[in-house]
Design a protein that fits this description.
Elements lengths: L1 E3 L2 E5 L39 E2 L22 E4 L3 E5 L9 E6 L10 H18 L5 E7 L10 E7 L10 H4 L8 H17 L3 E2 L6
Antiparallel strand pairs: 1-2, 2-3, 4-5, 4-9, 5-6, 6-8, 7-8
């Protein structure tokens, strides 16, 4: 048993967990051999012990404090069920957006109506992101370890960037030369307007 503040936890125990040796440094060299060809060397931190129950995510215990539920100036598009947010800070990738239901749904409890609208929306977001000059593809991820509110990420993969293929693309945002704020806002605007052309509203919380 351990405590993190007043949060009581015990070691996670399963057949899978019992095979692990905590405190040892995993070999990260396989990451240098992946198709993305992005890493020359990788030194992993020692494997940390795993405890359960895990601490609640943002908005898990009290949806009243959920950031995804509150209006945001970074909402670049919204319709009846879904919203897209972007432009929090400049980075190296042409576009990163967060896709979330407008209401506080988790993947586990979102109504079929909301989930059914996600497929066509992903198609529209992909097409919108690819209209940014110099963008070849739009990648999506769904992690949901930080906030309980269902959300997916959309990442623009620059044209010709073979070192950005796959999951490593998200890390390149912090390593490529940072875009200017002007360029970021221009690209965010391209995506917002393209999405709104197919329905919904661009920048719903922005004063006109
Ligand atoms: Zn929420």
């Amino acid at each position: 048993m351990t405590t993190d503040g007043d949060f009581a936890q015990h070691p996670a125990d399963s057949e899978w967990h019992r095979r692990l040796t905590f405190g040892e440094r995993p070999d990260g060299s396989w990451m240098t051999q992946g198709p993305a060809h992005a890493y020359e060397s990788v030194v992993m931190r020692p494997l940390e012990p795993m405890f359960v129950p895990e601490k609640p995510r943002h908005g898990e215990l009290d949806p009243q404090n959920c950031g995804s539920c509150a209006p945001s100036e970074h909402t670049i598009w919204a319709d009846e069920h879904w919203q897209v947010r972007a432009g929090w800070e400049t980075g190296g990738l042409p576009f990163i957006g967060a896709i979330a239901p407008r209401e506080h749904w988790l993947l586990e409890d979102a109504p079929l109506e909301v989930m059914a609208a996600l497929g066509p929306l992903m198609q529209r977001i992909s097409e919108a992101v690819k209209t940014i000059p110099g963008v070849a593809r739009c990648h999506f991820s769904r992690w949901n370890d930080g906030s309980a509110h269902l959300h997916l990420w959309a990442f623009a993969r620059p044209a010709g960037m073979m070192q950005g293929r796959g999951a490593v693309l998200s890390y390149w945002d912090g390593m490529l030369p940072e875009m200017s704020e002007e360029m970021m806002n221009e690209y965010v605007g391209i995506v917002a307007q393209r999405l709104a052309a197919g329905g919904g509203e661009a920048f719903p919380h922005r004063a006109v």
